[in-house]
Amino acid sequence: MGINRVRVKEAMDIKGISTYTELAALLGITKNQLSLMLSDNYSPIKSRADELLSLLQLSPAEAIEIGQGRNGAVSGLPSAAVTDIELFAGAGGLALGLEKAGIDTIAFVEIDKFCCETLKKNRPHWNVINSDISKIDFTQYRHKVDIVSGGFPCQAFSYAGKKLGFNDTRGTLFHEFARCIKEADPLMFLAENVRGLVSHDGGRTFQTILSILGEMNYDIQYKILNAAYYGVGQKRERIVIIGAKKGVNYRYPEPEASMTTLRTALRNCPESEGQSYSKRKKEVLDLVPPGGSWVDLPNDIQAAYMGKSINSGGGKRGMARRISWDEPCLTLTCSPSQKQTERCHPDETRPFTVREYARIQSFPDDWEYCGGIGEKYKQIGNAVPVEMARRIGVALKESIMDYRNEPKLDD
Question: Which of residues 201 and 290 earns the better pLDDT score?
Fold first, then answer.
């Protein structure tokens, strides 16, 4: 992997930079240092080329060349490396989990600027591409990565006919995810989404997704995983779809016998900033015991607090909910204090802090988030739990290494 010198020269011409000496001076480095940066031995994955690309207004996708194929190493990485492209990277839950599993992700695509700032702050050497995914040409990665991963946001399809194909999903983020797979043609892909995708529009959306992915010559399997059985102190159910080329065998990680509790997740959690409840909400939640919800309130307060919701159907136990130490937290949302999704601390009448939110998502304590406090909660709430991602990633890497080590007919 190296920087494309032809693209650099083209960009220099556009910017009116006539010589490498002038370019080096603008970067504040010597000409020898610039020569090293543009040499075949320079790895933009391991070293920062941000200043060069910023000056020339080139994205990493435009300027970075990837060498070798799926049976060899990507330049600058060990020959045994298992490589990945991650789409919709967010604040890095899936990315960090795959890193912990020993997978080398060579590009992280994300449109949200705060998420990109978070990724760059924590991993300055990562190739973070802050771009609309529809603008990226993934053919440059064809047969050069082992995995494509991401949690594409679910959007409804327009069912104009009886059967949908790849082109009929244009305009949706699933189409862009599928396009990346089609153009890069990796050995495997990993797609994560909310459990509700399975039943969306009577199941038709999910069946369309499976059909389109299967037409790309992948064996498809899917499973709903509850993060609480994979080392995460949270009841977070997600569907995990795995696609594998013929000969690549994947097994989902085994669940643990019992769930991880909030007590385990928040043990010795450092202090941090956090939101607070309004005076009225605090007065109400003061009356709720650990593990309880609105049903534990006095009848008159129930009616006043719940309003019309009190006569609606099921699914209300998340309202006025105080979590118990000895259970997993309910699924975290993007806001810790909304009426429909309260997640109150077991002992104190307050929402979980930013760092507690991160711990419940199994982020390490040194992972920092950019933006205001609301933006931080949003980034964490939208993330894939790191530990669950790590375990999925370990199984992905094992599958690819087993495939590489299996004798082939032409060996």
Answer: 290
Residue 154 a catalytic site member: yes
Q: Are 238 and 378 within one domain?
A: no
Q: Say if residues 239 and 192 touch (Cβ distance below 8 Å).
A: yes
What would the pLDDT profile of 114-144 be if each residue is shown by its tens digit?
999 999 999 999 999 999 999 999 999 999 9
What single letter denotes the amino acid at residue 342?
E
What is this structure's pTM? 0.80
Q: Is 346 within a domain?
A: yes
410 within a domain of the structure (yes/no): no
Candidates 154, 269, 329, 334; catalytic one:
154
pLDDT tens-digit map of 351-397:
999 999 999 999 999 999 999 999 999 999 999 999 999 999 999 99
Residue 373 is predicted with a pLDDT of 96
Q: What is the dihedral of CA 316, 259, 345, 295, to 10 degrees?
A: 30
261: closest CA among 329, 188, 189? 329
Specify the DSSP element, H or E, that contains 132. Answer: none
What is the C-alpha separation between 344 and 241, in angstroms, rounded? Answer: 32
What is the rounded distance in angstroms from the CA atom of residue 100 to the CA atom of residue 362? 12
**Structural domain span for residue 9:** 2-63
Q: Is residue 69 part of a domain?
A: no
